[in-house]
Amino acid sequence: MKYALNQLLENPQNNLRIFKNGELLYGAQGKSKPTIDDQISLHQDLDNYFSASIEEEKTVDEGALKRPAVQSFLDVVLQALLHSKEEKSPLQVKSSLPSQTCKASGFTKTSLRDSKSGNQKVRMLPDGSVLDVILQVQRLDDLDIEGVYAMYQKHQNMISATDDTSSEEGKQLDWPYEERKFLQRVLSSEEPVITQDANSVTLDDAVHKIRTFLLAGTAKDCSVLLAIQPEGTTDRSWNYPYTCHHGNKTYLYSSHIIDLDTKPSSRIPKYYKLNKKLVKVYNSL
C-alpha cells in the first residue's frame, strides 16, 4: 500500500490532491505530472509538520518525494486509512477473487509467501476501516458488465412490453427508492442466490442486481477526505475524533467518504460499449 501511495504521489492526475488551510498545495490536472519544483515545494511544506532529523535527511538523496518528511506523511495517511472505527464491519461480502499483485511494484506472489510454510500471506483490511468499508461495497458487484447489461435489457423490454413507466418501487432502477428495504436485502445473511442467467431471472431479482451494480459502481468512484493536524496546533472547534502516532509526534485526524451520488442506470449501455472496446483493443495486442 505504501508503494501505491508513492506512485499516486508521483503521478496524481485527478486522483490525489493535498490542501493546506483550504488552498491547493499539490496535485495535477488531467494527464499532467507535478514538476520537480512542485515536489520540492511539497516537501518543504510537509517538513514543517513531519520533519525528520538532520541525520535522516542526509541519508536520502532520491528526490523530494522520497525524503523522510514526505514518507512520514504517507505513513500517517496509511494509519488513518487503516484505522478500525468499529469492532466489526456491518457488511461482510464473500469474494472468490484471488489475491493480485502489480508486476511493476516488485512484489511478486513468491515474495508474498511465508518463508517457513510457503503459504501465501493474506493481509486483510481492518474491519471498519475506511478502505474496508469501501472495498466491501465494491465487492457487492458479482456480475461483469455483460451480465448486468443483459439484465438491464430485459428490464427495459419488460417495462416497454407492459407500457409501464417503471415508476413503481419494485421496478425503479434509479434513486430515489426505498433504500431501507434494499439495504436490508443486501445485508441479509439469508439473501437467496440469484441466477446470473438474464433469460430466467425474475424482474424483481434483475432490479436488485442492477441496483447493486450501480451501488458498487459508486464505491468504485468515490473519494476519501482526510484532515490531519499535529497535536497542539489545531483549533479545537474542528472535530478530530482520532489520533495516531508516528515517531515522537501525535497527529489528530478525521476521515470522510464523499462523492457518493448513485450512478444512473442510463450509464450501463455506455459501460457495456466501453468494455467491448477495451476487449477489442486487448485482443489486438
Task: Tell me what you see in this structure.
It is a single chain. The chain is of the alpha+beta class and 285 residues long. It has 9 helices and 5 strands; from the N terminus they run H-E-E-H-H-H-H-H-H-H-E-E-E-H. The chain has helices at residues 2-10, 36-47, 54-58, 68-82, 130-138, 145-161, 179-187, 203-219, 268-284; strands spanning 18-20, 23-26, 223-230, 242-246, 249-258. The strands form 2 sheets. It has a 3-stranded antiparallel β-sheet with strand order 3-5-4. The chain has a two-stranded antiparallel sheet with strand order 1-2. Helix 6 crosses helix 8 and helix 6 runs antiparallel to helix 9 (268-284). The longest helix is centred in the middle third of the chain and has 17 residues, at 145-161. The protein is elongated and about 65 Å long. The relative contact order is 0.10.
Primary descriptors:
285 residues, alpha+beta, 3-stranded antiparallel β-sheet, two-stranded antiparallel ribbon, 5 strands, 11% strand
- Mind telling me the C-alpha Rg? 23 Å
- Could you state the order of secondary-structure elements as H and E? HEEHHHHHHHEEEH
- Number of DSSP strands? 5
Q: How much of the sequence is in beta strands?
A: 5-15%
| Widest β-sheet, arrangement of strands | 3-5-4
